[in-house]
Structure formats: structure tokens, C-alpha cells
Amino acid sequence: MRHRQRGAEVTAAMRASQRKLAVIAAAIPAAGRTTLEGKCLVNGVPLLETEFASDPKTPIVSSRIAEIVALQSEIPVYEVFLQDVRRGGLSALLTAYAAEGEGIIVVDAVEERDLTLIAQAACEQPSMPLLVGAAGLANALPVELFMQDRQRL
Hints:
Layout: H1 6-17, E1 21-25, E2 33-36, E3 39-42, E4 45-46, H2 65-70, E5 77-80, H3 82-86, H4 90-100, E6 103-107, H5 112-123, E7 130-133, H6 135-148
Helix pairs in contact: 4-5, 5-6
Organism: Salmonella enterica subsp. enterica serovar Wandsworth str. A4-580
Protein name: Four-carbon acid sugar kinase N-terminal domain-containing protein
Pfam family, one: SBD_N
């Protein structure tokens, strides 16, 4: 995840869209980018230890996405680790965070199915959170939105 002004961008988008929650799922498993224990990994290597870390234009200050976002946002940042995504109950966790007020939630994903679970949990919220991510999350979302109006088998 490039340093840029990610936290400020998420905060501005939340304010503009009047969303209480933002869910960040930065993984693109098909491209080797995953998130585990809050860290962005490229082919299993923490982002800070890759060649991307020394980019002079957008240097990497941490592999931990929540840390990068928190540096640039006054909104509380939370992490949901992979075991919590996979055991179920992500929807309930998001609902609980929303009840606390504004929040930015960074969610682990290692496989495409993890992104599908994240999209499903987001779509189950009474108020859809702002979804922040990449192609991995974008690819999972249409399936979930399509299934919303249909009976699940």
C-alpha cells in the first residue's frame, strides 16, 4: 500500500459520502498481494521489505495498513484478522464498530474467498460501508450484490 495520503483520502470519502464506516480490503490474491495480521504482503514478503519500500516518490513507512491510515486520519482505525473473517461473524463485527461511531476497518484477506466474505458482510450492513480496496474486492462485490436480491441456496 503506497503511503500517499491514504488516511486523508479515506476520511474525505467517508465525509463526502456520509458513511460511518470504511472497510479497507487491499488484497489482490491473484496478483500476489495479500493482507495477514494487518500487514500488506507481496508474494509473502512484508511490503516494507520489498523494492516498493524505497520508492522516492511514495516511500513505504510500514507494512501495517492500519498504521499508515492512522497517521493521516483522526477516525479510529481497527483491524480484523483472517481468523475472524473466516470463522464467520464479520457482519456482526462491522455492526458493532458502526454502533461505536465512525471507524475505518482494515480486513485481512489471503484468498479470493476471503474477499467474498468481506463483500458479503459489507452488503449485510443496514448502511453500506465505504469500501476501499483494489481489484480483488471489486471482483467480489458484483457477485454479492447480484445475490442480494435472490434466494441463496
